[in-house]
Design brief:
The chain is of the alpha/beta class. About 40% of the residues lie in helices and about 25% in strands. Bound molecules: S-adenosylmethionine.
Amino acid sequence: MATILRTLSYKYQWFYDGISNLAALAVGGENRFRNLALEQLPIDKNTEVLDLCCGAGQTTKILAQYSDRVTGLDASPVALTRAQRNVPNARYIEGLAQNMPLESERFDLVHSSVALHEMNPDELQQIFQEVYRVLKPGGVFAFIDFHKPTNGLFWPPLALFMWLFETQTAWQLLQTDLLAKLEETGFKIARHKLYVGGSLQVAQAKK
Ligand SMILES: C[S@@+](CC[C@H](N)C(=O)[O-])C[C@H]1O[C@@H](n2cnc3c(N)ncnc32)[C@H](O)[C@@H]1O
């Protein structure tokens, strides 16, 4: 599924960022959107942070304002080149989220914004295991992504967005109980909040 707009959004960063800015108005704007998953987390200059599936560094930029120890990981060399240019004060690693080329128990915080919906349920399970592995004991996994709306009025705008920009895995994510998967992996859910009629979720899970 998806349309040519998905291809264009990955090809042109200005287009991706424009769509992201527009969608973020639903929660009060891009800056609030990029901070939602980080709310109430104690991040300081020494916090070891991994921005998982960092893309062009859209949230890496925010993370790098809080910490001097931010690493971005993405499978796409094009995205990493952009991230390096946009946020030069973070380090970057090319790799798959389901098999990260990173040592165990390295990070205090693993963050991921609007990327889990790109994975199928089996990949998600592998990714959660990998996130658990690279987190220090007591470390936190925080993410923001789509969720099945709890208010029916929000189905049409979400469905339109998904039809224009997303693939089958995003629809699968709506049917997936991410909290149960996290708990199966060994995480304790510390926070789970829904926004925009339930169509957006933020979770923070502790190792
Ligand atoms: C929708 S973008 C999100 C980018 C950014 N985090 C943001 O908030 O805008 C999804 C990103 O996930 C990356 N990605 C998709 N599958 C991946 C995987 N299996 N491992 C690592 N990165 C992946 C893509 O290359 C892309 O940069």
